Amino acid sequence: MPKISNNEVLNIFPLFFETNLNEKGGISGIFEKLGKIFEFTEVFIYYVNPESLQLKYSFNDYSNYSINSTFPFSTRQKKLIYSEDNYIADENNPIIKTLKIQGKDCNYAISKLIIRQTVFGILVLVRNDGQLYTDEDLAILKTCSCIISYVIKDLELSNVFKIQLKALKDGIIEKNNAYKTIKEQNEKILEADKVKNEFLANVSHELRTPLNSILGFSEILQNGMYGELSSKQKEFVDEIRVSGLRLLGMINEILDISKIEAKAMKISRSRFSIDMLYTEVCNVLAPLAAKKNIRMIKDFDEDFEIYADYQKMQQVFYNLVSNAIKFTPENGEILLGAENKKNRVILSVHDNGIGIDPKYHGKIFAKFVQLDSAYTKKEASTGLGLTITKELVELHGGKISVKSEVNNGSTFIIDLPVITGGQ
Ligand SMILES: Nc1ncnc2c1ncn2[C@@H]1O[C@H](COP(=O)(O)OP(=O)(O)O)[C@@H](O)[C@H]1O
Ligand SMILES: [Mg+2]
């Protein structure tokens, strides 16, 4: 017989729904309410643990009875569950045996926890006063286990939500932290890059000043202004000039690339003749060409004028012509061209040197790229020349391209928009 009247039982039913999980994830509130309705010395609820995804799980934080911590309750062991949803059992019942809760004068009421026809747990009441549970007990127990089934599922679900929410929060925090670290590192790299560029710009500038004296004074010596030189002296002074020029080229490249990367490169246009530009570049590079007996030929009809940044264009042709000299064997030829084509100015540097395999045409304009050849090994160089050249041409709104094949010379073509201005 239940401890209380049916009316009182009806008052307790709604209280089951107010059960919360305690801090251990326990549902002691349920046991406490069952204790108000039924006579029992022990009570057990077993249900499938959704987190471990194991089909066995024991649950009881109300009883002090020492029992198996897990119960092999699984769909595969359905034989342990009788066909009825609720029944009275004795110590021979397989569930009672499995639970090892047999005792003298013990009687048991077993009820299944079912949701949508699926058994997911059992509820067991144990009394050791020699009294049997009654049909009335069973009828109320049936309603209780029905309510408890929903309460447990609901708690489980909210628990799963909590776990998912936590995982989501952890994930977001982790992502935010990673993002913060990347951002900080990125800022450090940018800062370091800025410092490096400033350093390079300063150092290259300081290096250029003494180098200009080396070049200037060796030229004065070479011209014989202060007395004729012996042929050996001439040879040495020549070597000083050539090495100085190469060094100047490299320093200029480092200076230019750091300016480009610092986005400090601005163009200032003026009107000048291509002839003047080519002549000056050829004059500067004449000692390098002479060393290999390479002829530099200006190959265009018209007296071209363009409106561009003179110094930058000088740098462009200095780079292209010095490459042409570097990658052309002795006695070679370099042609400097210029023509008008449909409102564009096409300037070109052609050589009959070692050429470039078309598969590298896209690569050579990238920073530090140097193709493997006897020529790149022989002379120290930066691999920056074409990168700078491309940048300078693009600053003018133009494009640079290459036509070349291995052993068949190279032509670098600069295609500039015609810009009117200047006198
Ligand atoms: N006229 C050319 N003939 C053959 N190869 C060239 C020529 N110009 C450039 N290259 C190739 O492109 C590479 C990149 O050129 P560049 O950026 O000026 O670097 P660097 O002259 O310092 O080697 C060179 O190392 C070379 O392999
Ligand atoms: Mg170069």
What tags apply to this protein structure?
rod-shaped; 423 residues; Beta-Lactamase; binds magnesium ion; alpha+beta; Heat Shock Protein 90; binds adenosine-5'-diphosphate; four-stranded antiparallel beta sheet
Describe the structure.
- The protein is α+β, with helices and mostly antiparallel strands and 423 residues long.
- The chain folds into 2 domains: 6-167, Beta-Lactamase (2-Layer Sandwich); 268-417, Histidine kinase-like ATPase, C-terminal domain (Heat Shock Protein 90, 2-Layer Sandwich).
- The protein is built from 9 helices and 11 strands.
- It has helices at 6-16, 28-37, 94-99, 135-222, 231-261, 274-291, 310-326, 374-378, 385-395, and strands at residues 42-47, 86-89, 107-115, 118-127, 270-273, 295-299, 305-308, 333-341, 344-351, 399-404, 410-417.
- The strands form 3 sheets. The protein has a 5-stranded mixed β-sheet with strand order 6-8-9-11-10.
- The longest helix is centred in the middle third of the chain and has 88 residues, at 135-222.
- The protein starts with 5 loop residues before the first helix and ends in a 6-residue tail after the last strand.
